[in-house]
Write the C-alpha coordinates for this entry.
Amino acid sequence: MILGIETSVDHVGVAVGDYRGIRAHSMLASDRRHAESLTPMIQFVLQQADATMADLSAIAVDVGPGLFTGMRVGIASAASLAWALELPVAPVCSLDALAMNAEWSDNVVAASLDARRGEVYWALYRMRGVGAEPLRLTEPVVSSPEDMAVHLADRGEDIMCVGTGFVRHAELFEDVPWALMAGEPHAFPTAQQVVVLASHRIAADDTVQAGDIAPMYLRAPDAEINWLTREATQ
Amino acid sequence: MTSHVVNESTVVLAIETSCDETAASVVMGGNDILSSIVSSQIEIHARFGGVVPEVASRAHLEALIPVVNAAITEAGILPSRVDVVAATAGPGLIGALLVGVSAAKSLALVWDKPFVGVNHLEAHLYAGLLDDPTLQFPLVVLLVSGGHTMIIEMRGHGDYVIMGRTIDDAAGEAYDKVARYLQLGYPGGPAIDKIAPDGNPHAVEFPRAMMHDGLDVSFSGLKTSVINYVKKNPGVANVDIAASFQAAVVDVLCAKTIKAAQKVGAKGIVLGGGVSANSLLRSEMTTRGAAAGFTVALPSRDMCTDNAAMIAAAAWHRLASDGPTSLSCGAYPNLKLDAVPR
Ligand SMILES: [Zn+2]
Protein backbone atom coordinates (compact mmCIF):
# COMPACT_ATOMS: atom_id res chain seq x y z
CA MET A 1 0.00 0.00 0.00
CA ILE A 2 1.16 3.52 -0.85
CA LEU A 3 0.90 6.55 1.45
CA GLY A 4 0.44 9.74 -0.57
CA ILE A 5 1.15 13.25 0.74
CA GLU A 6 -0.03 16.49 -0.88
CA THR A 7 1.13 19.79 0.66
CA SER A 8 2.32 21.88 -2.28
CA VAL A 9 -0.87 23.97 -2.44
CA ASP A 10 -3.01 25.69 0.21
CA HIS A 11 -4.57 22.35 1.06
CA VAL A 12 -3.13 19.45 3.01
CA GLY A 13 -4.09 15.99 1.81
CA VAL A 14 -3.22 12.41 2.71
CA ALA A 15 -4.37 9.22 0.98
CA VAL A 16 -3.54 5.52 1.18
CA GLY A 17 -4.20 3.03 -1.59
CA ASP A 18 -2.65 1.30 -4.54
CA TYR A 19 -3.24 0.67 -8.25
CA ARG A 20 -6.59 -0.93 -7.39
CA GLY A 21 -7.88 2.20 -5.73
CA ILE A 22 -7.86 4.50 -2.73
CA ARG A 23 -8.55 2.93 0.68
CA ALA A 24 -8.90 6.19 2.64
CA HIS A 25 -8.13 9.85 2.20
CA SER A 26 -8.51 13.16 3.96
CA MET A 27 -8.16 16.77 2.89
CA LEU A 28 -8.11 20.05 4.75
CA ALA A 29 -8.08 23.65 3.55
CA SER A 30 -5.20 24.36 5.88
CA ASP A 31 -4.67 28.10 5.61
CA ARG A 32 -0.98 27.23 5.30
CA ARG A 33 -0.85 25.29 8.53
CA HIS A 34 0.56 22.32 6.66
CA ALA A 35 2.93 21.10 9.36
CA GLU A 36 0.28 21.27 12.08
CA SER A 37 -2.20 19.17 10.12
CA LEU A 38 -0.05 16.68 8.24
CA THR A 39 1.22 14.30 10.94
CA PRO A 40 -2.16 13.85 12.69
CA MET A 41 -3.78 13.44 9.28
CA ILE A 42 -1.40 10.61 8.33
CA GLN A 43 -2.27 8.89 11.61
CA PHE A 44 -6.02 9.40 10.98
CA VAL A 45 -6.01 8.20 7.37
CA LEU A 46 -4.08 5.05 8.27
CA GLN A 47 -6.65 4.31 10.99
CA GLN A 48 -9.51 4.89 8.55
CA ALA A 49 -7.88 2.50 6.10
CA ASP A 50 -7.54 -0.01 8.93
CA ALA A 51 -3.83 -0.09 8.18
CA THR A 52 -0.56 0.38 10.04
CA MET A 53 2.83 1.68 9.01
CA ALA A 54 3.87 -1.93 8.47
CA ASP A 55 1.32 -2.26 5.63
CA LEU A 56 3.03 0.46 3.59
CA SER A 57 5.23 -0.49 0.64
CA ALA A 58 6.10 3.01 -0.61
CA ILE A 59 5.74 6.71 0.19
CA ALA A 60 4.51 9.13 -2.47
CA VAL A 61 4.85 12.89 -2.18
CA ASP A 62 4.04 15.95 -4.25
CA VAL A 63 7.42 17.63 -4.80
CA GLY A 64 6.07 20.78 -6.46
CA PRO A 65 6.13 23.16 -8.11
CA GLY A 66 4.04 24.95 -5.50
CA LEU A 67 4.28 26.65 -2.12
CA PHE A 68 7.91 26.28 -1.06
CA THR A 69 7.19 25.94 2.65
CA GLY A 70 4.31 23.52 2.09
CA MET A 71 6.38 21.38 -0.28
CA ARG A 72 9.16 21.12 2.26
CA VAL A 73 6.77 20.04 5.01
CA GLY A 74 5.56 17.23 2.75
CA ILE A 75 9.02 16.24 1.54
CA ALA A 76 10.63 16.33 5.01
CA SER A 77 7.80 14.16 6.34
CA ALA A 78 7.87 11.73 3.41
CA ALA A 79 11.65 11.45 3.60
CA SER A 80 11.57 10.74 7.34
CA LEU A 81 8.83 8.14 7.02
CA ALA A 82 10.62 6.45 4.12
CA TRP A 83 13.97 6.52 5.92
CA ALA A 84 12.58 5.05 9.14
CA LEU A 85 10.50 2.42 7.34
CA GLU A 86 13.21 1.72 4.74
CA LEU A 87 10.73 2.27 1.92
CA PRO A 88 11.17 3.70 -1.59
CA VAL A 89 9.78 7.13 -2.44
CA ALA A 90 7.84 8.09 -5.56
CA PRO A 91 8.18 11.86 -6.08
CA VAL A 92 5.19 13.25 -7.99
CA CYS A 93 5.03 16.57 -9.85
CA SER A 94 2.13 18.77 -8.68
CA LEU A 95 1.18 19.66 -12.28
CA ASP A 96 1.08 15.98 -13.34
CA ALA A 97 -1.32 15.30 -10.47
CA LEU A 98 -3.34 18.42 -11.22
CA ALA A 99 -3.73 17.42 -14.89
CA MET A 100 -5.52 14.27 -13.72
CA ASN A 101 -8.47 16.48 -12.79
CA ALA A 102 -9.15 16.39 -16.54
CA GLU A 103 -8.27 12.72 -17.06
CA TRP A 104 -11.48 12.23 -19.11
CA SER A 105 -10.61 15.01 -21.57
CA ASP A 106 -9.84 14.45 -25.28
CA ASN A 107 -8.32 17.92 -25.52
CA VAL A 108 -4.86 19.05 -24.71
CA VAL A 109 -4.85 19.82 -20.96
CA ALA A 110 -3.06 22.83 -19.48
CA ALA A 111 -2.34 22.40 -15.76
CA SER A 112 -1.34 25.59 -13.97
CA LEU A 113 -0.81 26.58 -10.34
CA ASP A 114 -0.61 30.12 -9.03
CA ALA A 115 3.05 30.88 -8.28
CA ARG A 116 2.27 34.28 -6.67
CA ARG A 117 4.10 37.49 -7.57
CA GLY A 118 2.17 37.60 -10.82
CA GLU A 119 3.51 34.28 -12.09
CA VAL A 120 2.18 30.80 -12.74
CA TYR A 121 3.64 27.29 -12.94
CA TRP A 122 2.33 25.37 -15.92
CA ALA A 123 2.74 22.41 -18.26
CA LEU A 124 0.74 20.84 -21.11
CA TYR A 125 -0.54 17.26 -21.24
CA ARG A 126 -2.33 14.73 -23.36
CA MET A 127 -4.52 12.37 -21.33
CA ARG A 128 -4.19 8.63 -21.81
CA GLY A 129 -7.37 7.55 -20.09
CA VAL A 130 -8.83 7.43 -16.60
CA GLY A 131 -6.27 6.41 -14.02
CA ALA A 132 -3.42 6.47 -16.54
CA GLU A 133 -0.32 8.65 -16.33
CA PRO A 134 -0.83 11.84 -18.36
CA LEU A 135 1.66 12.37 -21.18
CA ARG A 136 3.65 15.58 -20.74
CA LEU A 137 3.73 17.68 -23.92
CA THR A 138 5.83 20.41 -22.33
CA GLU A 139 8.02 20.43 -19.22
CA PRO A 140 6.83 22.39 -16.14
CA VAL A 141 7.92 26.05 -16.21
CA VAL A 142 7.24 29.27 -14.35
CA SER A 143 6.17 32.33 -16.36
CA SER A 144 3.78 35.25 -16.39
CA PRO A 145 0.16 34.19 -17.04
CA GLU A 146 0.25 36.36 -20.18
CA ASP A 147 3.19 34.36 -21.54
CA MET A 148 1.36 31.16 -20.78
CA ALA A 149 -1.75 32.49 -22.57
CA VAL A 150 0.32 33.28 -25.69
CA HIS A 151 1.78 29.76 -25.71
CA LEU A 152 -1.64 28.20 -25.36
CA ALA A 153 -3.20 30.40 -28.08
CA ASP A 154 -0.33 29.50 -30.45
CA ARG A 155 -1.39 25.86 -30.40
CA GLY A 156 -4.52 26.76 -32.35
CA GLU A 157 -6.71 24.15 -30.67
CA ASP A 158 -9.14 23.93 -27.78
CA ILE A 159 -7.37 23.48 -24.46
CA MET A 160 -8.83 22.22 -21.20
CA CYS A 161 -7.49 24.56 -18.50
CA VAL A 162 -7.21 23.30 -14.90
CA GLY A 163 -5.73 24.77 -11.73
CA THR A 164 -5.42 27.85 -9.56
CA GLY A 165 -3.23 29.48 -12.22
CA PHE A 166 -6.35 29.83 -14.37
CA VAL A 167 -8.75 30.61 -11.51
CA ARG A 168 -6.48 33.38 -10.28
CA HIS A 169 -6.05 34.93 -13.74
CA ALA A 170 -9.53 34.10 -15.08
CA GLU A 171 -9.87 37.56 -16.67
CA LEU A 172 -7.15 36.70 -19.19
CA PHE A 173 -9.16 33.76 -20.53
CA GLU A 174 -12.70 35.13 -20.23
CA ASP A 175 -13.54 35.72 -23.89
CA VAL A 176 -11.00 33.33 -25.37
CA PRO A 177 -12.79 30.73 -27.50
CA TRP A 178 -10.13 27.98 -27.24
CA ALA A 179 -9.93 28.02 -23.41
CA LEU A 180 -12.20 25.45 -21.78
CA MET A 181 -12.13 26.35 -18.09
CA ALA A 182 -12.45 23.52 -15.58
CA GLY A 183 -12.98 26.08 -12.84
CA GLU A 184 -12.76 26.19 -9.07
CA PRO A 185 -13.70 22.64 -7.97
CA HIS A 186 -10.86 21.12 -10.04
CA ALA A 187 -8.19 23.67 -9.18
CA PHE A 188 -5.95 21.60 -6.86
CA PRO A 189 -3.98 18.38 -7.11
CA THR A 190 -5.07 15.80 -4.51
CA ALA A 191 -3.32 13.14 -2.44
CA GLN A 192 -5.41 10.50 -4.22
CA GLN A 193 -3.91 11.55 -7.54
CA VAL A 194 -0.45 11.48 -5.97
CA VAL A 195 -1.07 7.84 -4.96
CA VAL A 196 -2.39 6.86 -8.41
CA LEU A 197 0.58 8.44 -10.20
CA ALA A 198 2.98 6.87 -7.73
CA SER A 199 1.51 3.42 -8.36
CA HIS A 200 2.60 3.72 -12.01
CA ARG A 201 6.10 4.79 -10.97
CA ILE A 202 6.41 1.95 -8.53
CA ALA A 203 5.23 -0.54 -11.14
CA ALA A 204 7.95 0.83 -13.43
CA ASP A 205 10.49 0.63 -10.59
CA ASP A 206 11.02 4.38 -10.96
CA THR A 207 11.52 5.38 -7.31
CA VAL A 208 14.18 7.13 -5.22
CA GLN A 209 15.61 6.69 -1.73
CA ALA A 210 14.57 8.83 1.23
CA GLY A 211 17.62 11.11 1.02
CA ASP A 212 17.30 11.69 -2.72
CA ILE A 213 13.91 13.40 -3.08
CA ALA A 214 14.44 16.45 -5.27
CA PRO A 215 12.00 19.35 -4.77
CA MET A 216 10.84 21.01 -8.00
CA TYR A 217 11.19 24.68 -7.05
CA LEU A 218 11.49 26.10 -10.62
CA ARG A 219 12.36 29.47 -9.07
CA ALA A 220 15.58 30.47 -7.35
CA PRO A 221 15.41 32.17 -3.92
CA ASP A 222 15.07 35.97 -4.25
CA ALA A 223 18.47 36.60 -2.71
CA GLU A 224 20.09 34.35 -5.28
CA ILE A 225 18.32 36.13 -8.13
CA ASN A 226 19.42 39.54 -6.78
CA TRP A 227 22.95 38.28 -6.26
CA LEU A 228 23.21 36.85 -9.76
CA THR A 229 21.87 40.06 -11.33
CA ARG A 230 24.34 42.09 -9.30
CA GLU A 231 27.23 39.85 -10.34
CA ALA A 232 26.15 40.06 -13.97
CA THR A 233 26.02 43.85 -13.97
CA GLN A 234 29.37 44.33 -12.22
CA MET B 1 0.49 18.76 31.50
CA THR B 2 1.28 15.14 32.13
CA SER B 3 4.79 14.38 33.21
CA HIS B 4 6.55 11.48 31.62
CA VAL B 5 8.96 8.99 33.10
CA VAL B 6 12.47 9.63 31.87
CA ASN B 7 15.63 8.16 33.34
CA GLU B 8 19.34 7.75 32.72
CA SER B 9 18.74 5.21 29.96
CA THR B 10 16.19 7.31 28.04
CA VAL B 11 17.53 7.90 24.52
CA VAL B 12 16.53 11.13 22.77
CA LEU B 13 17.04 11.75 19.04
CA ALA B 14 16.89 15.51 18.43
CA ILE B 15 16.85 17.60 15.26
CA GLU B 16 17.81 21.29 15.07
CA THR B 17 17.04 23.42 11.99
CA SER B 18 16.19 26.85 13.40
CA CYS B 19 18.80 28.93 11.58
CA ASP B 20 21.81 27.96 9.47
CA GLU B 21 22.96 24.65 10.94
CA THR B 22 21.26 21.34 10.19
CA ALA B 23 21.96 19.20 13.23
CA ALA B 24 20.94 15.88 14.73
CA SER B 25 22.08 14.24 17.94
CA VAL B 26 21.49 11.21 20.10
CA VAL B 27 21.71 11.86 23.84
CA MET B 28 21.13 9.31 26.59
CA GLY B 29 19.86 10.20 30.05
CA GLY B 30 19.77 13.94 29.35
CA ASN B 31 23.55 14.46 29.29
CA ASP B 32 25.41 11.54 27.72
CA ILE B 33 26.07 12.62 24.12
CA LEU B 34 26.26 9.51 21.91
CA SER B 35 26.49 11.55 18.71
CA SER B 36 26.20 15.18 17.64
CA ILE B 37 26.24 15.90 13.92
CA VAL B 38 26.23 19.49 12.63
CA SER B 39 26.09 20.39 8.96
CA SER B 40 26.86 24.09 8.65
CA GLN B 41 25.50 26.34 5.93
CA ILE B 42 27.92 29.20 6.66
CA GLU B 43 29.60 28.91 3.27
CA ILE B 44 26.26 28.87 1.48
CA HIS B 45 25.21 32.17 3.09
CA ALA B 46 28.62 33.88 3.07
CA ARG B 47 28.17 35.48 -0.35
CA PHE B 48 24.92 37.10 0.81
CA GLY B 49 26.54 38.48 4.00
CA GLY B 50 23.84 36.96 6.21
CA VAL B 51 21.43 34.08 6.53
CA VAL B 52 18.84 34.07 3.72
CA PRO B 53 15.71 32.25 4.96
CA GLU B 54 14.70 30.57 1.68
CA VAL B 55 18.27 29.49 0.99
CA ALA B 56 18.51 28.11 4.52
CA SER B 57 15.25 26.16 4.25
CA ARG B 58 16.36 24.54 1.00
CA ALA B 59 19.71 23.57 2.50
CA HIS B 60 18.05 22.10 5.62
CA LEU B 61 15.83 19.86 3.51
CA GLU B 62 18.83 18.64 1.53
CA ALA B 63 20.92 17.88 4.61
CA LEU B 64 18.10 16.42 6.73
CA ILE B 65 18.24 12.67 6.02
CA PRO B 66 22.05 12.40 5.76
CA VAL B 67 22.44 14.24 9.08
CA VAL B 68 19.79 12.20 10.92
CA ASN B 69 21.21 9.00 9.49
CA ALA B 70 24.73 9.97 10.58
CA ALA B 71 23.52 10.76 14.11
CA ILE B 72 22.03 7.27 14.47
CA THR B 73 25.01 5.54 12.85
CA GLU B 74 27.60 7.42 14.90
CA ALA B 75 25.68 6.75 18.12
CA GLY B 76 26.02 3.05 17.32
CA ILE B 77 22.39 2.32 18.09
CA LEU B 78 19.50 0.84 16.16
CA PRO B 79 16.69 3.30 15.44
CA SER B 80 14.45 1.10 17.61
CA ARG B 81 16.56 2.12 20.62
CA VAL B 82 15.28 5.74 20.34
CA ASP B 83 12.74 6.50 23.11
CA VAL B 84 11.94 10.13 22.32
CA VAL B 85 12.10 12.26 19.17
CA ALA B 86 12.62 16.01 19.59
CA ALA B 87 13.02 19.03 17.35
CA THR B 88 13.48 22.76 17.79
CA ALA B 89 10.00 24.29 17.47
CA GLY B 90 11.10 27.93 17.89
CA PRO B 91 12.26 30.62 17.90
CA GLY B 92 13.91 30.80 14.50
CA LEU B 93 13.20 31.02 10.79
CA ILE B 94 9.76 29.55 10.24
CA GLY B 95 10.47 27.71 6.99
CA ALA B 96 13.68 26.29 8.43
CA LEU B 97 12.03 25.20 11.69
CA LEU B 98 9.24 23.42 9.81
CA VAL B 99 11.71 21.05 8.14
CA GLY B 100 12.96 19.73 11.48
CA VAL B 101 9.56 19.71 13.18
CA SER B 102 7.95 17.82 10.28
CA ALA B 103 10.74 15.26 10.24
CA ALA B 104 10.73 14.68 14.01
CA LYS B 105 6.95 14.34 14.21
CA SER B 106 7.01 11.81 11.37
CA LEU B 107 9.70 9.75 13.11
CA ALA B 108 7.75 9.87 16.39
CA LEU B 109 4.67 8.68 14.53
CA VAL B 110 6.46 5.79 12.78
CA TRP B 111 8.20 4.60 15.91
CA ASP B 112 5.20 5.31 18.16
CA LYS B 113 7.37 7.34 20.55
CA PRO B 114 6.70 10.69 22.25
CA PHE B 115 7.56 13.88 20.35
CA VAL B 116 8.94 16.94 22.13
CA GLY B 117 8.96 20.40 20.50
CA VAL B 118 11.88 22.26 22.07
CA ASN B 119 12.44 25.95 22.80
CA HIS B 120 15.79 26.80 21.19
CA LEU B 121 16.62 29.48 23.77
CA GLU B 122 16.02 27.08 26.64
CA ALA B 123 18.23 24.55 24.86
CA HIS B 124 21.12 27.03 24.76
CA LEU B 125 20.95 27.16 28.57
CA TYR B 126 21.34 23.38 28.65
CA ALA B 127 24.47 23.52 26.51
CA GLY B 128 26.44 24.70 29.54
CA LEU B 129 25.01 21.96 31.75
CA LEU B 130 25.83 19.32 29.14
CA ASP B 131 29.49 20.25 29.30
CA ASP B 132 29.58 20.59 33.10
CA PRO B 133 26.89 18.58 34.94
CA THR B 134 28.26 19.69 38.34
CA LEU B 135 26.90 23.24 37.93
CA GLN B 136 24.53 24.31 40.73
CA PHE B 137 21.52 26.61 40.52
CA PRO B 138 20.98 29.52 40.52
CA LEU B 139 23.12 30.20 37.46
CA VAL B 140 23.43 33.35 35.45
CA VAL B 141 23.67 32.60 31.74
CA LEU B 142 24.89 35.08 29.16
CA LEU B 143 23.23 34.00 25.91
CA VAL B 144 24.86 35.80 22.98
CA SER B 145 24.37 34.89 19.34
CA GLY B 146 23.54 36.41 15.97
CA GLY B 147 19.89 36.61 16.97
CA HIS B 148 19.93 37.00 20.75
CA THR B 149 21.65 38.81 23.60
CA MET B 150 20.20 37.98 27.00
CA ILE B 151 21.30 37.73 30.59
CA ILE B 152 19.21 35.02 32.21
CA GLU B 153 18.88 33.78 35.74
CA MET B 154 18.38 30.01 35.63
CA ARG B 155 16.82 29.13 38.99
CA GLY B 156 16.23 25.50 38.15
CA HIS B 157 15.04 23.30 35.29
CA GLY B 158 12.43 25.22 33.34
CA ASP B 159 12.62 28.18 35.72
CA TYR B 160 14.11 31.27 34.08
CA VAL B 161 14.08 35.00 34.60
CA ILE B 162 15.37 37.32 31.90
CA MET B 163 17.41 39.92 33.76
CA GLY B 164 18.71 41.88 30.81
CA ARG B 165 18.59 41.92 27.03
CA THR B 166 19.62 44.02 24.09
CA ILE B 167 17.31 46.89 23.34
CA ASP B 168 18.38 46.94 19.68
CA ASP B 169 20.93 44.76 17.85
CA ALA B 170 22.07 41.36 19.06
CA ALA B 171 25.82 41.17 19.77
CA GLY B 172 26.37 38.83 16.81
CA GLU B 173 24.47 41.20 14.55
CA ALA B 174 26.75 44.08 15.58
CA TYR B 175 29.79 41.90 14.79
CA ASP B 176 28.36 41.04 11.36
CA LYS B 177 27.59 44.67 10.51
CA VAL B 178 30.97 46.00 11.63
CA ALA B 179 32.80 43.17 9.85
CA ARG B 180 30.85 43.87 6.68
CA TYR B 181 31.71 47.57 6.90
CA LEU B 182 35.40 46.75 7.39
CA GLN B 183 35.11 44.18 4.57
CA LEU B 184 36.35 41.37 6.79
CA GLY B 185 33.84 38.80 5.55
CA TYR B 186 31.02 36.76 7.02
CA PRO B 187 30.29 35.65 9.69
CA GLY B 188 31.60 38.73 11.48
CA GLY B 189 32.33 37.21 14.90
CA PRO B 190 35.12 34.84 13.90
CA ALA B 191 36.45 37.36 11.33
CA ILE B 192 36.89 40.11 13.94
CA ASP B 193 38.06 37.68 16.62
CA LYS B 194 40.77 36.46 14.25
CA ILE B 195 42.43 39.85 13.62
CA ALA B 196 41.63 41.66 16.89
CA PRO B 197 44.58 40.13 18.84
CA ASP B 198 46.95 41.91 16.40
CA GLY B 199 45.42 45.31 17.15
CA ASN B 200 45.41 47.76 20.05
CA PRO B 201 42.16 47.49 22.02
CA HIS B 202 42.72 51.04 23.33
CA ALA B 203 43.38 52.56 19.91
CA VAL B 204 39.88 54.02 19.97
CA GLU B 205 37.79 54.23 23.14
CA PHE B 206 34.40 53.40 21.65
CA PRO B 207 31.37 54.18 23.84
CA ARG B 208 30.12 51.54 26.30
CA ALA B 209 26.41 52.26 25.97
CA MET B 210 24.19 51.94 29.06
CA MET B 211 27.18 50.72 31.05
CA HIS B 212 25.74 51.99 34.30
CA ASP B 213 21.98 51.67 33.77
CA GLY B 214 20.46 48.35 34.64
CA LEU B 215 21.24 45.07 32.93
CA ASP B 216 19.99 45.78 29.41
CA VAL B 217 22.54 46.37 26.68
CA SER B 218 22.61 48.28 23.39
CA PHE B 219 24.94 47.74 20.43
CA SER B 220 23.37 49.89 17.75
CA GLY B 221 25.15 53.07 18.87
CA LEU B 222 28.49 51.26 19.07
CA LYS B 223 28.11 50.00 15.53
CA THR B 224 27.28 53.52 14.33
CA SER B 225 30.23 55.09 16.13
CA VAL B 226 32.59 52.50 14.63
CA ILE B 227 31.31 53.32 11.15
CA ASN B 228 31.51 57.09 11.76
CA TYR B 229 35.00 56.82 13.20
CA VAL B 230 36.26 54.85 10.19
CA LYS B 231 34.69 57.37 7.82
CA LYS B 232 36.49 60.24 9.56
CA ASN B 233 39.77 58.37 10.08
CA PRO B 234 40.28 56.21 7.00
CA GLY B 235 43.96 55.72 7.85
CA VAL B 236 43.41 53.75 11.06
CA ALA B 237 44.26 50.05 10.68
CA ASN B 238 41.43 47.50 10.59
CA VAL B 239 43.15 45.47 13.30
CA ASP B 240 42.95 48.42 15.72
CA ILE B 241 39.32 49.12 14.89
CA ALA B 242 38.45 45.43 15.31
CA ALA B 243 40.35 45.21 18.62
CA SER B 244 38.75 48.39 19.99
CA PHE B 245 35.25 47.38 18.87
CA GLN B 246 35.61 43.92 20.37
CA ALA B 247 36.98 45.37 23.62
CA ALA B 248 33.88 47.56 23.96
CA VAL B 249 31.45 44.67 23.32
CA VAL B 250 33.21 42.31 25.70
CA ASP B 251 33.60 44.98 28.38
CA VAL B 252 29.84 45.63 28.45
CA LEU B 253 28.87 41.94 28.33
CA CYS B 254 31.24 40.98 31.17
CA ALA B 255 30.30 43.91 33.40
CA LYS B 256 26.56 43.35 33.03
CA THR B 257 26.76 39.58 33.47
CA ILE B 258 28.83 39.87 36.63
CA LYS B 259 26.48 42.53 37.97
CA ALA B 260 23.54 40.16 37.36
CA ALA B 261 25.35 37.27 39.07
CA GLN B 262 26.04 39.45 42.10
CA LYS B 263 22.42 40.59 42.23
CA VAL B 264 21.00 37.04 42.50
CA GLY B 265 23.88 35.42 44.35
CA ALA B 266 24.55 33.03 41.48
CA LYS B 267 26.53 29.82 42.05
CA GLY B 268 28.09 30.25 38.63
CA ILE B 269 28.21 32.09 35.34
CA VAL B 270 27.66 30.19 32.10
CA LEU B 271 28.17 31.34 28.52
CA GLY B 272 25.98 30.21 25.64
CA GLY B 273 25.25 31.03 22.00
CA GLY B 274 27.52 31.47 18.99
CA VAL B 275 29.24 34.65 20.22
CA SER B 276 30.38 32.82 23.36
CA ALA B 277 32.88 31.03 21.12
CA ASN B 278 34.65 34.41 20.97
CA SER B 279 38.11 34.09 22.52
CA LEU B 280 38.24 37.54 24.15
CA LEU B 281 34.81 37.09 25.71
CA ARG B 282 35.88 33.70 27.06
CA SER B 283 39.14 34.91 28.57
CA GLU B 284 37.76 38.19 29.97
CA MET B 285 34.69 36.55 31.50
CA THR B 286 36.89 33.91 33.13
CA THR B 287 39.31 36.45 34.62
CA ARG B 288 36.76 39.04 35.68
CA GLY B 289 34.24 36.44 36.87
CA ALA B 290 36.90 34.75 39.01
CA ALA B 291 38.00 38.11 40.43
CA ALA B 292 34.39 38.68 41.50
CA GLY B 293 34.30 35.21 43.10
CA PHE B 294 32.27 33.30 40.50
CA THR B 295 32.88 29.96 38.84
CA VAL B 296 32.69 30.62 35.11
CA ALA B 297 31.66 27.68 32.92
CA LEU B 298 32.72 27.95 29.30
CA PRO B 299 30.98 25.32 27.20
CA SER B 300 33.11 23.91 24.40
CA ARG B 301 32.83 25.88 21.16
CA ASP B 302 30.74 23.04 19.65
CA MET B 303 28.18 23.50 22.39
CA CYS B 304 28.13 27.31 22.09
CA THR B 305 27.05 27.31 18.46
CA ASP B 306 23.77 25.70 17.39
CA ASN B 307 23.71 21.94 17.83
CA ALA B 308 21.14 19.23 18.46
CA ALA B 309 22.69 17.76 21.62
CA MET B 310 21.44 20.75 23.59
CA ILE B 311 17.99 20.25 22.01
CA ALA B 312 18.01 16.62 23.18
CA ALA B 313 19.05 17.65 26.70
CA ALA B 314 16.29 20.26 26.94
CA ALA B 315 13.77 17.74 25.56
CA TRP B 316 14.70 15.19 28.23
CA HIS B 317 13.98 17.73 30.99
CA ARG B 318 10.79 19.06 29.35
CA LEU B 319 9.43 15.55 28.84
CA ALA B 320 9.95 14.85 32.53
CA SER B 321 8.17 18.03 33.64
CA ASP B 322 5.54 18.69 30.95
CA GLY B 323 5.10 15.46 28.99
CA PRO B 324 5.13 15.10 25.20
CA THR B 325 4.18 17.78 22.68
CA SER B 326 1.16 17.22 20.44
CA LEU B 327 1.72 15.89 16.91
CA SER B 328 -0.17 18.97 15.71
CA CYS B 329 2.73 21.14 16.89
CA GLY B 330 3.91 23.66 14.31
CA ALA B 331 6.78 26.12 14.31
CA TYR B 332 6.87 29.22 16.50
CA PRO B 333 9.27 31.77 15.00
CA ASN B 334 8.93 34.23 17.92
CA LEU B 335 8.79 31.78 20.82
CA LYS B 336 9.73 33.44 24.14
CA LEU B 337 12.25 31.88 26.53
CA ASP B 338 9.63 30.75 29.06
CA ALA B 339 7.12 29.44 26.48
CA VAL B 340 6.67 25.69 26.06
CA PRO B 341 5.59 24.53 22.58
CA ARG B 342 2.29 22.63 22.68
ZN1 LIG C 1 21.05 29.38 18.69
